[in-house]
Amino acid sequence: MRKAAFHTLGCKVNAYETELMQRALKEAGYEITSFDAPADVYVINTCSVTNIADKKSRQMIHRARTLNPAAVVAAAGCYVQGAWEQLKEDAAVDVLLGNSEKKDIARILEEYFRSRGENGAETCGTEDRCAQDCDAGGQQDKLVFNSQERARTETPRAPLTAVGDIGAVRHYGDPGAETMENHTRAVVKIQDGCNQFCSYCIIPYVRGRVRSRRFPEIREEAERLVQKGFRELVLTGIHLSSYGRDLPEEADVRSLIEVLEELDRVPGIGRIRTGSLEPGIVTEEFVRRAAALKHLCPHFHLSLQSGSATVLKRMNRHYTPEEYLAGARRLREAFPDCALTTDVIVGFPGETEEEFQETLQFVETVDFYEVHVFPFSPRKGTKAAAMPGQLTRQEKAERASRLASLQAEHARRFRERLLGEEIEILTEEEEEIGGQRWFTGCTRNYVRAAVPAEGLSENQLVKCRPEGFLTEELLKAERVF
User: Fold this and answer.
1) How confident is the model at residue 174 (pLDDT cuts 50, 70, 90)?
2) CA-to-CA distance for 431 and 50, rounded, in angstroms?
3) In terms of CATH, what superfamily is 3-168?
4) 250 phi/psi in degrees, rounded to 5
């Protein structure tokens, strides 16, 4: 039995797809082990959302090689999709998988082992290169074998790449994974790809266009997860708000709000949480229908990126600050206790101090619970990377620090507003804090809280009332009986 170890970088979609790959290898007879343990195969599910993500992906590939020089190192995902020509020449990696090939990892690894003469198969011999076409989920991919020798072992390596044309993907194709967070929360991927082409973003080029999963598959997976005991389902995708745009008119469910309404009826479901949403989806109709749902969590992550209209235009974002603010107010009116969180890029090319001040003022006006702050990172191949007015690293770091200080104050105020209120947490983990045993978990609006562990177990929905703080970010609560 071969052992396989995984390391995941990036978003919840990647986490979901790692689970998909793990399940495929388990079914093929592999034992899944931890990444730091000895393994026969190391799989790095890479990210390419920033230059830093690229760097971390390369670092983890090379770290895997040092863990076991004789192991097979497989790199998958967005960084591979965008940089596979360079990675084909990297002696640290043996197998490259694009995003649409992840589901075929067991077959592709078997092809690789056979190319090395394992399992009784013949090797590639001394030919410089041979290629064969194979059908992978409805599209033709090229598997390239390169027989140049590697100095790190006595066995010549044959790098195998399976990076398909992501634009040719014609259907969703994922059979459904079961990504777990603390055995209480499960992630359900409902779409892939993005059509937005923001000027700073590489993702449409490495993930392809929007592809939506048919709802019967989503419902089947949700029902299975609920039957297994998961109390909370998190819907995720690369551009969640675009769900259904590619589906035929005869499809019964063709929008995100329809998915939410149908899942709200699944027997036994406890909570439904959404991933990142675009501001444009928050129409009066969307909010009205969302407010009627029993299990939807009042936590909405609305991507902002900048509070300046001129910066948003350079970013090729498809809304104005005024339109964003109108959507935020609709949500607050329908969900008075909702938590609004967002992402902001500081130091975008050409961003003046006045434009940055507009962002600071906008964040103050909306009063977000959390703001994830990112200094602009130029991505090769995007329009923003070639724009004039690139700010220095010091300028971007200084602005990021100012915005982070503002968001920390907003987060503190939001948590304080929960003191004395009745809340519900989903118990996730038992731990000792200050000499006492506590169960920690998240409220419906995604604030972390702790309740005394006596009489409780993991994966319970517990009513409680916060009285103070155990740490700066952890509410201290007592059960409400």
Assistant:
1) low
2) 34
3) Methylthiotransferase, N-terminal domain (3.40.50.12160)
4) -80, -5
Q: Is there a contact between 450 and 474 (Cβ–Cβ < 8 Å)? A: yes
Return d(Cα 55, Cα 48) in angstroms, integer: 9
Of the candidates 249, 288, 292, 295, the one whose C-alpha atom is nearest the C-alpha of residue 272 is 295
For residue 348, which phi and psi values (nearest 5 degrees)? -60, 150
Q: CATH number of the domain at 179-417, please?
A: 3.80.30.20
Closest by CA to 305, choosing from 257, 358, 242, is: 358
**Taking the domains of the chain in order of start, what are their residue ranges?**
3-168, 179-417, 423-479
More confident site: 169 or 16 = 16
Q: State if pTM tops 0.90.
A: no
Q: What token pair was written down for 186?
A: 């499960």
Instruction: Just give the CATH number of 423-479.
Output: 2.40.50
